[in-house]
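Fold this sequence, please.
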Amino acid sequence: MTLTNVQDVASLFPLPSAPPSLYAPARLPGVTHVSGTALADVLKDNHVKWHAFFNDRGFHNHASHHLVAIYALGAGGPLIDAAYQTHAVYMRPAFDSPEPITEKNVWLHLGKREFYNSYLEYFRTVLRIKDVTDVLEEYIFSAKANVGGAGVVGEPQMLNRFYSALVHPMIHTGCGLEFGLLGLVAEGLAQTAVHPVQGGNLIPKSLFHQGGSVERLAALLPSLSLNRSASAPARSSVHAFTILARVLAEPKFSAKNLGLPLVGDLTHFDKVNEVLGHDLVKLSDEWVAELDGNGATAAVVQTKIEELAWMNALIYGVGGWSGRDRAPGGAFNADFFYMHLVTSSLFLPTFVAYLSPRSSILLLRTFFTTSLTWYLAQGRAALPIGEFYKAVTAMPTPPGPVAVPVKGTLTPGDIAPNPWLPIVQTTIAHPGEHLCKLQRALLHNATLYGTREAGFFAGTGLEGAELLDGTLFIRAAGLSATRLGWMKEGEKEGEWDRTGFNY
C-alpha cells in the first residue's frame, strides 16, 4: 500500500456512525469520543498492516469483528486497544497481489486469496466514487455479479461467496455498514471476491431473473408494497418454525440419511447441498412467498427478519442444550457453527436499511436457506423446547462471592436483578472474539423481542413453540457465558464445541 493510500485510509475509518435503522443494534452507554477514536485507530492499523487471512488455510482475521462488538457494548479505549493486541500477535502482514484488479479483470481472479489486497484496493476506489448501496447492488446482488453477462467470463456467483466460510464475508460487510465504516465494507467485499463458491445448489440462477431494482426499502412506509406490480396478488408464506418442524420430522433431513459424519474431503455443508439443496430451496420458496407481489411490505420484511432471529437463536440455544452430553461438563454444546447463524442474523436489519427491496428479499431467502443448510450439516440438533424451559434459568448469575445487601435494599436475594448487565461486563473483558458477537446479538434480540409472551408462536407446528417467550435469549446467553467462562469473575476460558449432533 502506497503512502498516499495510507493517508486516504483515514477517510474510510471515521468515528462510528449511528445505527442505520431503529431495528439495527443500539449502542450501549459507555460509548464515548475516546472509545470511538480508539476504535478508528486500531481499525486503520489493522486495515493497513494485516492480511484478511492469517494462515494458508484461509483462517480469518477477526480483529475488526471483535473490536466493533465490544465498542458497541460500551468498552473503553484501553480495553479496545488490549483486545486488538490479542489479534496482532498472530496476524500475517499484508502483501501485494500478483497484479492489480481493474474493471477489466475484476471477475477473473475470484476465489484466489492471493488477490485479496488488489481487490481491497479496487473496492476502496469504487466506494470513494459510488454510493455504498449501488456498490452492493452491483457487486453482490446483480444478475451480472452472479450469473454473468456481457463482458463477464463464467458465473461470478458473488452472493454465494458472500455466505462462504460460515458467512464471514457477510458478517464483515455488515460490520462496516452498521458502523458507517467504508473501510470495513471494502474489506468485506474483497473477502467475498476471494472466497470460494460453496453450496452451488442453494442459490438457483432463476433468482437473478426476477424483476429489477426499485427504491430503497428504508424509504417505504410499512403500508406500501415493495413490489411495484399492482396485479400480482400476495401469497401467504409459512412461518420459519413451521419449516423447522418439517425438517425435524422428515427422515430425509437426518444425519443418518446424509451419512454423517463424512470421511474424506467433502464437507458436511457440501454434502447437504449435494443431497438436499433443491429441497431446501423449495422450503425457502414457501417461507418467502409472502414477499412476492403486493404482500411484500416493509412490515412483512421485518417479520421475516424476526423469524430468522428466533429460529437461529433456537437452533443454537435449545439445540446446544439438547446436545449437552457431547460437551465437556455436560451442560451446553456451544456449537461453533450454530453460533455463527446467530451472529450473522444480527446484521439483517442493517443490510435491509441499505439495499433495494428486490435485493433485501433475495438476501432474506438465501440467508434462510444457508441457515437451514448449516443446521443440517451439524446433524439437525433436537429442539426440546419444553425440557429446555424447565431446566435452563432465565436469571443467570455470575459465579463467585456475593455481596451482602444492606437493609432496605429491594429484593436483596436477587444477585443480578438485570441478568444482562453482568453478562455484558464479563463479555467485553473476555478475549474470545466470537463470544462478544454472540452475546451482542442475543442482547439485541432480547431488546427487540423480549416482550414476546408464551403462546405467541402457538400454531406454527413446532413442538413446544407455544412455550417460547422473550427469555429465550437470556437463557442462551447464560449458557454461553458459563461454557466460554466467566473469566472476569475468575473462571478459566472455555471453548466452542465442534462435535456436532446426532452422529
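DSSP finds 21 helices and no strands in the chain. Confidence is low (pLDDT under 50) at residues 212-234.
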